[in-house]
Amino acid sequence: MATAPNASSLLLVSSPISTAPRARAGSFPPSAQPSLRLRPRPSPAVAAAVQAEHQPAVAATPKPPALPFRVGHGFDLHRLEPNLPLIIGGINIPHDRGCEAHSDGDVLLHCVVDAILGALGLPDIGQIFPDSDPRWKGADSSVFMKEAVKLMHEAGYELGNLDATLILQKPKISPFKETIRSNLCDLLGADPSVVNLKAKTHEKVDSLGENRSIAAHTVVLLMRK
Fold first, then answer.
1. pLDDT digits (tens, 9 = 90+) for 190-208
2. Which one has a higher pLDDT value, 130 or 46?
3. 57 SS3 class
4. Which of 147, 152, 172, 218 could serve as 111's disulfide partner, Cβ 3.0–4.6 Å?
5. Contact, 94 vs 171, CB < 8 A?
6. 179 φ/ψ angles, rounded to the nearest 5 degrees
């Protein structure tokens, strides 16, 4: 059965052995030196054409047009532990427990940040501000909010509206709701009419209902400027 040609047979073409002496020092004796013809190199124009032909298809795909609006959803949950501060929306809420977290554990701000990043198609808060980075140990979550808002404006968007829901069994949030919402508006640079905040219990079901954790959901609409 015939064997496939090796790589050298594709690139080199043998010619009759030359008996003429070679001028280059250190060469084989004339009687043992074969004369080989190399396949001519393609011109730069041909090489460029071949390279372009084998580029991935995505390289030639134009960028999609800027969307008139974008929607993002954020979710966060933290375990509650005794003798820690409970920070919600940048406000210190009196309670006998607080969020266990690498930063200040502000479940609402973390949730809003993730919603904005998600709407922009960016990595989540844990990738941009990893808990393995000592810079964010105990950090005020307003730092994360300011960065998310900056990225939103750099991408050419502004907040259309935001709807957030806190889920916790204790404490009651109603006495602090407007203060939290006002601070959230300041961080977002948004009018209060486009920022909504709700709070729900978990009907004493699972860790949320047993006052062992706190969670939040947020949906944002970003509008093209």
1. 999 999 999 999 999 999 9
2. 130
3. helix
4. 218
5. yes
6. -65, -45
pLDDT for 214: 97
For residue 92, give every residue at least 6 positions away whose Cβ sits within 8 Å of its Cβ, in sequence order, or none.
85, 86
Q: What is the pLDDT of residues 26-80, one digit of tens each?
A: 444 555 454 445 445 555 554 554 444 444 333 444 554 589 999 999 999 999 9
Does 1 reside within a domain?
Answer: no
- Please indicate, yes or no, if residue 193 is contained in any of the structural domains: yes
- Of the two residues 54 and 124, the one the predictor is more confident about is 124
Output the domain CATH number for residue 127: 3.30.1330.50
Backbone angles phi, psi at 117, to 5 degrees: -60, -40
What distances in angstroms separate CA 60 from CA 67, 108, 197, one per listed residue? 20, 41, 44
Give how many domains the chain has, as a whole number. Answer: 1
Q: Residue 143: inside a domain, yes or no?
A: yes
Q: Other CB atoms closer than 10 Å to residue 147's CB: what's the count?
A: 16
Assigned domain for 26 exists: no
Residue type, 75: F
